[in-house]
Design a protein that fits this description.
By secondary structure, the chain is an all-alpha fold. It has two helices and no strands.
C-alpha cells in the first residue's frame, strides 16, 4: 500500500464516523483499521525521514 492510499482510506473512515453512517460493530472494525493505517503512515514517514537525513548527511 502506498502512503497516499492509506491517508485517503483514513479520510474515508473519519468521514464515515463523523457522519454517523456506521453501526457500532462496523465502527469498531473501522477504528481497528484506522489504527493500523496510522501505524503504517507513521512508520513510512519515519523511514522516509531517515532516508532523507542519510542522503543529506555530510559524506566523510
Amino acid at each position: 500500500m502506498k502512503y497516499e492510499e492509506a491517508v485517503k482510506r483514513l479520510e474515508e473512515i473519519v468521514s464515515l464516523i463523523e457522519e454517523s453512517k456506521l453501526d457500532i460493530d462496523h465502527t469498531t472494525e473501522c477504528l481497528k483499521e484506522a489504527q493500523e493505517l496510522i501505524k503504517f503512515c507513521r512508520d513510512k514517514l519515519y523511514r522516509t525521514d531517515q532516508e532523507i537525513q542519510s542522503i543529506l548527511a555530510p559524506q566523510e
